[in-house]
Amino acid sequence: MHAQLGQLWSNAQSSGRKHGHEEASLGKRQLLNNATWLDQLNVLDFLRAIGNGMRLGAMLGRDTVRNKMEKGDGMSFAEFTYPLLQAWDWWHMYREHGVQIQIGGSDQYGNIVAGMDAVKHIAQTSTDSQQEDWLDDVGRIKEDLVPMGLTVPLLTTASGEKFGKSAGNAVWLDSDMTSAFDLYGFLLRSSDEDVERYLKLFTFIPTSEITAVMAQHKADPGKRKAQHLLAGEVLELVHGTEVGNWCERPLPAAVGPQPVGR
């Protein structure tokens, strides 16, 4: 995973440069394994730090919990406590690495809000030696150190269908699970209604160029010019320039590869 993400980051920088985006200071990036701290977590220390700050009313009121309880087959204790462990992850990274922002899909809204509450509660009640660095004169987290969350809409097709394992249409960055050729074919089958949005979401192509490409595409949709551009750019981003160029060679008339789901 470390090597894969490192390569993806390098490919993203190359793609950005290709399309004229200037490189700026990108800060630090690091891939962490939460097992390094959760495996050492003492349950009593965990409850002492976070227990009083997590109210059952708020947890039961989350949409994800309510939907499970009302429309599904109930919720296990493990599922119910998952937001607390995710919140602890954030607290650890806040304390050790200064991580203030958590980004996730819109389905993670409840978990992110729970994490914000947990970080503020622990920081304000902790006896940690760093506490004076976090709090203002009245004992609240300083304004410039407040934890924040950002959610993004889940990726869907124009018909509202989701992407992912649960929907049975997952694609993978790992070429052992979805080959570069299959990924290209999957993107090439993007509908005309979706392709412009995907170009804006998944590539560094300037919007003015996307507009021009879409005009050419609408003039002759059969050539699937926009879909070929999308597939080539994403392949270059995921697997590098050489693989992207290789997959842009003419494909058979019937594009058959399907995404691999596990």
TrEMBL record:
<keyword id="KW-0436">Ligase</keyword>
<feature type="region of interest" description="Disordered">
    <location>
        <begin position="1"/>
        <end position="24"/>
    </location>
</feature>
<keyword id="KW-0030">Aminoacyl-tRNA synthetase</keyword>
<dbReference type="InterPro" id="IPR002307">
    <property type="entry name" value="Tyr-tRNA-ligase"/>
</dbReference>
<dbReference type="GO" id="GO:0006437">
    <property type="term" value="P:tyrosyl-tRNA aminoacylation"/>
</dbReference>
<dbReference type="GO" id="GO:0005739">
    <property type="term" value="C:mitochondrion"/>
</dbReference>
<dbReference type="GO" id="GO:0004831">
    <property type="term" value="F:tyrosine-tRNA ligase activity"/>
</dbReference>
<dbReference type="GO" id="GO:0005524">
    <property type="term" value="F:ATP binding"/>
</dbReference>
<dbReference type="GO" id="GO:0005829">
    <property type="term" value="C:cytosol"/>
</dbReference>
<protein>
    <recommendedName>
        <fullName>Tyrosine--tRNA ligase</fullName>
        <ecNumber>6.1.1.1</ecNumber>
    </recommendedName>
</protein>
<dbReference type="InterPro" id="IPR014729">
    <property type="entry name" value="Rossmann-like_a/b/a_fold"/>
</dbReference>
<comment type="similarity">
    <text>Belongs to the class-I aminoacyl-tRNA synthetase family.</text>
</comment>
<keyword id="KW-0648">Protein biosynthesis</keyword>
<keyword id="KW-0067">ATP-binding</keyword>
<dbReference type="InterPro" id="IPR002305">
    <property type="entry name" value="aa-tRNA-synth_Ic"/>
</dbReference>
<keyword id="KW-0547">Nucleotide-binding</keyword>
<dbReference type="InterPro" id="IPR024088">
    <property type="entry name" value="Tyr-tRNA-ligase_bac-type"/>
</dbReference>
<dbReference type="Pfam" id="PF00579">
    <property type="entry name" value="tRNA-synt_1b"/>
</dbReference>
